[in-house]
Amino acid sequence: MIGKILIPLLALAGAGYALVTVAIGSQPAPVGKPVAEPSRPPFETYIAGSGILEAVGQNIAIGSPLPRLALEVNVKVGDEVDAGAPLFRLDDRDLKAEAAVRKAALQSARARLDRLKASPRVEEVPPAEARVVAAEAMLSDFKNQVALWESVADKRAVTVEDLQRRKFAVQAQEARVAEAKSSLALLKAGAWKADVQVAEAEIASAEAQLQQTETEIARMTVRAPLRGVVLQVNLRAGEFAPSGALQTPLMLFGRLDRMNLRVDVDENDAWRFRSNAAAVAFVRGNRELKTELTFERVEPYVVPKRSLTGDSTERVDTRVMQAVYSFDRSKLPVYVGQQMDVFIEVKNGAKP
Fold first, then answer.
1. Measured between alpha carbons, how far is 347 from 170 in angstroms, rounded to an integer?
2. Phi/psi of residue 61, nearest 5 degrees
3. CA–CA separation, 124 and 130 (whole Å)
4. I need a surface site. Which of 32, 108, 274, 284 has the fewest CB within 10 A?
């Protein structure tokens, strides 16, 4: 009897609990209060876009001209440096050794040219003149012997062979005299013009090779391309610095006296964009911080969207036109890489 009453009561209680649970679960969840109030467009009709801050003239990725070991890193994040200031220095010990070798080769080439231009030495002329005098004296002796042999009255006392031998000796000595005189004239004439030109060409070649090595040494010190601020440093002394375009640059550099704001405009709104339209940017997290923008340029090539806002309704499979604006950095407490909400006025009455 008790079971017949208890079981239906338990069934009714379970059904009631289920109905209450379903009713409670079907109520809409309360909307959470945003951490910061979203920016409100200041125009009746507008184009909304997301912008990312960058240095004037874009952020400059500093790289290494050659894959080498980094010996020194001369700056730190936030340093403001002048154009040409050293940022970091690569290992250049082998190049300095090569430069020393080429300096020695240049000095040797210059010494050879100086020796050519200084010839003849004063001490070299008297021995050459003495050789000419000695050769002439010997020639006179040979001629005198021939004359004596020819003056003999009894021809039987002189053989034809001996006489001819002495005449040939005179001819040979005449050639030696001519050679000695030519050597003396060549010595007094000094360096040959062609030899001087060859020596000068060797000096020019040595200077060019030395300059090439010194240029390579200068390249091992990477310098600031312009006056600006070091935004990132991803290199330490003793680390290997690869060359080429890197996904993470060794250093990030830029000018911060003004800020550029690169705004992504959806390709569907690109036809509504006008370069002379007013534009306002809001700092995310505080809609009271805003500034008017100055138009700089439009990138003429539409690209896939890369700068994402994190909104759950955001489309990522789209292409955007990038418009670049600028403003004075002193107007807002913002930093390079920060995202801002941008509204561009549309004056044709079309609704966004």
1. 116
2. -85, 110
3. 11
4. 32
Place of tokens 């003495």: 130
Amino acid at the residue 115: R
| Cβ-based neighbours of 210, under 8 Å, separated by 6 or more | 99, 102, 103, 105, 106
- pLDDT of res. 351: 47
Structure tokens at 334: 């913002």
* Weakly modelled stretches of the chain, pLDDT under 50: 350-352
Type of residue at 185: A
Give the global pTM. Answer: 0.65
Structure tokens at 92: 């250049």
CA distance 59 to 253: 6
- The one-letter amino acid code at 96 reads K
Give the C-alpha separation, 107 to 39, whole Å: 72
Q: pLDDT tens-digit profile of 185-210? A: 766 766 778 888 888 999 999 999 99
Per-residue DSSP letter, 155: G
> 3-state secondary structure string, 92-144?
CHHHHHHHHHHHHHHHHHHHHHHHHHHCCCHHHHHHHHHHHHHHHHHHHHHHH
CA–CA distance, 171 with 166 (Å, rounded to integer): 9
User: Quick check: 324 and 307 in contact, CB under 8 A?
Assistant: no
Residue 237, SS3?
Answer: coil
* Residues whose CB is less than 8 angstroms from the CB of residue 4 and which lie 6 or more positions away in sequence, other chains included: none
DSSP single-letter state for residue 243: B
